[in-house]
From TrEMBL, chains A, B:
Broadest EC class assigned to this enzyme: lyase
Taxonomy, superkingdom: Bacteria
Keyword terms: Lyase
Protein name: Putative hydro-lyase D7024_02050
Entries under Gene3D superfamilies matching the protein: PSTPO5379-like (3.40.1640.10), PSTPO5379-like domain (3.30.2040.10)
Family per similarity comment: Belongs to the D-glutamate cyclase family.
InterPro entries, sorted: D-Glu_cyclase, Putative_hydro-lyase, UPF0317
Organism: Desulfofundulus salinus
EC number: 4.2.1.-
MF (Gene Ontology): lyase activity
Length: 266, 266
């Protein structure tokens, strides 16, 4: 069994292989530095068009990195040769909106009519923020990012509708503009912020009481900055109560072969 | 009947109304300055997922601006209140890959199972180039942009596959970098170029013999710059020979309420 330290020097393919063999089943943040990690949503084909359309209509919370062929668990673009049934450390299985299992592979759940969606994740732009000298508080404090349900509605597609969920990072005032510039380069992983500075304007009442994740310290002179969050499509899909939906377990992402830098538009 | 001059000062909604009433049936370049125009592709629902997936997999040639609800001709995001059956000046109707009609409305062809896709068009970034002082030769020469079939394959989705088609604009060498910067701001309308300088590297043999559109003058000191072209999805859809496909007629685009500036990521 690999620990985090042993895993840190492995390539994406080596990590996926270790995960597949059962040698690694922990969260993935910090692994395969420089490579994009992805959120996973698996749905039956009869919902795939509406879910893809939901993503197209809401690209900030739902940046699509790859979509598999119906019934094929290989993400041919994001990681050729990988197997989405076995290559994530932990999955959650939902039936009609209720979680029925948390498992380390989904071989027994896979069906010929399933379509897997890989959605960009904030780890990519957080690494870019850190490289630009912008602090990321929840990483400093060893916490999960604070996430809030906003009063902003996503654009509906078929059965998929619901509010935008955002993540919040407190940024020193003199670095806020840099944070906008840095994350604007990455529309494929949530991109530029959706709001800066006044949480009540987007329906958030108390920054100390996030709806998901952990509260973090906001120091004097810091401004709360909000980005669209990948929890949005999962929450929306769950609310539609599909007969079967499979996702990654929180923090246990799929590690792609796509370089963070390749996701930048400029 | 409005002429081009009479049409030039109308808003997008006024233009669509004039077109709907039969008062304008000419090409749309130069109209509704500052507003995005769009390519139209209409397909039956059973092909809609694969076509949307093709667009997701090939965002440079196929930048999706809006997708209608099944059977509903109103593009609720790009132009609320508009009717895609009547609000373009000219349409082409294809059955099994063969053009069977060119018409000024498609009311008689509309069906409850049709889905309309509006795809970004190069007019938006051409206006941005002109505003940045970068000349656009085919506009100067009153011609259609030269387009070439490349040796680059698009990523396949279901029955949709084929080569990338590009448009070419000769740019003075000292303005090429500016042209890259300006168009990079607009990933929703083809974005940055796909190639600069050596047509043979992307399978183009003779710049004087475009596959579609007109040849344009290339002056000494100018570099040919290639952008992904919206003809790609139409060519790919046509090659899949769907039982019914409807598109805009070349140059007769849909005029949206989206401002060009709103399509810029930075």
């Amino acid at each position: 069994m690999l620990d985090n330290l042993g895993a840190q020097n492995l390539s994406p393919a080596e990590l996926r292989s270790a995960i597949r063999k059962g040698d690694y089943n922990r969260p993935t943040p910090g692994l395969a530095s420089g490579y994009a990690q992805a959120n996973l949503v698996i749905l039956p084909k009869d919902l795939a068009f509406d879910f893809l359309l939901f993503c197209q209509r809401n690209p900030k919370p739902c940046p699509v990195l790859d979509v598999t062929e119906v019934g094929d668990p290989e993400p041919k673009f994001a990681a050729p040769g990988a197997d989405l049934r076995t290559d994530l450390p932990r999955y959650r299985v939902y039936e009609y909106g209720q979680m029925v299992a948390e498992v380390t592979n989904i071989t027994d759940y896979w069906r010929d009519d399933l379509v897997a969606f890989l959605l960009g994740c904030s780890f990519t732009f957080e690494e870019a923020l850190l490289n630009a000298g912008v602090p990321v508080r929840h990483i400093e404090e060893g916490k999960n990012v604070p996430m809030f349900i906003t009063g902003i509605s996503c654009r509906q597609a078929g059965p998929f509708h619901g509010p935008l969920v955002v993540s919040m990072r407190p940024i020193p005032a003199h670095l806020v503009i840099r944070a906008v510039q840095v994350t604007s380069r990455y529309p494929a992983v949530h991109g530029a912020p959706v709001h800066i500075g006044q949480p009540e304007l987007i329906g958030i009442k108390d920054l100390n009481r996030p709806d998901f994740g952990d509260a973090v310290t906001i120091y004097p002179g810091e401004v709360p900055v909000f980005w669209a969050c990948g929890v949005t499509p999962q929450a929306v899909a769950m609310a539609a109560k599909p007969e079967l939906m499979i996702t990654h377990a929180p923090g246990h992402m799929f590690i792609t072969d796509l370089r963070d830098q390749d996701l930048a538009v400029i």
